[in-house]
Amino acid sequence: xxxxxxxxxxxxxxxxxxxxxxxxxxxxxxxxxxxxxxxxxxxxxxxxxxxxxxxxxxxxxxxxxxxxxxxxxxxxxxxxxxxxxxxxxxxxxxxxxxxxxxxxxxxxxxxxxxxxxxxxxxxxxxxxxxxxxxxxxxxxxxxxxxxxxxxxxxxxxxxxxxxxxxxxxxxxxxxxxxxxxxxxxxxxxxxxxxxxxxxxxxxxxxxxxxxxxxxxxxxxxxxxxxxxxxxxxxxxxxxxxxxxxxxxxxxxxxxxxxxxxxxxxxxxxxxxxxxxxxxxxxxxxxxxxxxxxxxxxxxxxxxxxxxxxxxxxxxxxxxxxxxxxxxxxxxxxxxxxxxxxxxxxxxxxxxxxxxxxxxxxxxxxxxxxxxxxxxxxxxxxxxxxxxxxxxxxxxxxxxxxxxxxxxxxxxxxxxxxxxxxxxxxxxxxxxxxxxxxxxxxxxxxxxxxx
Length: 450
Prior knowledge:
single chain; 4-stranded antiparallel sheet; 13 strands; elongated
């Protein structure tokens, strides 16, 4: 088998100056010429033909050694050619040329391109892409009136040292770092809450008051399952409260074992069901932790591996739930998982108007006064507080609405969306003169009785 000839007749041109320093590689191949004769072909040149079938030459060991050397050397040269790097640098340099000095910058890029090809000439000898680039540069420099001598582009900044361990060296159980590594920007977050009678603030900032009773899923996606169980405030009452919360952190092979957290009224544990306070023995187990913020009243669970923080509170005889979840996590569910109060809110058949509590004006005004102390802005949190205090008669519901507002203040990615206003959804304010009239009338009735 013969080593390939170094010359490329298809180019139809002699070697350029850029190729001159390629040396005298494969000298024996260069001394031969292919000539056509009729009816056959023959090899002629100086000395003995390289591919002669002379028996004496085939028996010569030095011939095989020299041929083997040429084949290995050709393969090495081909593997070391860096013309693709030169091409990519030229494309990057000319991609966004703008302004009045565009032509000068283009000439600089061409000279840099030419310089790059000269540096790799020795290893690219015989490479078709290399020869095409060399002749293409010459043509472009002539077309754009670029001189061969002149400034070139500054060298491209050296990229940061490669991470030999790749993405694995990052903490893959830190969602925020992983997302930043993949997308070059921090993740977006969403907030949902359920508190009081219960009131639902969805991931899309819709706000509903529900008459749901029994168990309903707040979340059901690839990473989390959260279920709230509601029961009447008292026997015969239409008002319901969340009396139990079940939160399941689904198994994530690289980070955590499956963990279950359950809270009930007067039982707000600072540990998961198995007694642990983290994600288990896996390397990423510390990416799921539970902390007690206020004994028996406030527990916080941080799931760093999915960019999620959950707050569970108890105020009076009701539980509340708040979550800050990465948007990607909140949306990781299928069509079959469509019933999620945090996503779609309460079903229409289960929604009630907060204005239903307005029948007793005196009770309403007293509830407004209580709620105003903790909730000065008359938004949906204030309206919910008034509704809950009137329907339940329990002043502790002011703490439930206040706690939900404080969680929203911390969890909401956009502070401008903290307050939601719904016209006509709450009880109208009673004027102080009307309230004074009611009190005076009551006083006269007492005096006349005696």
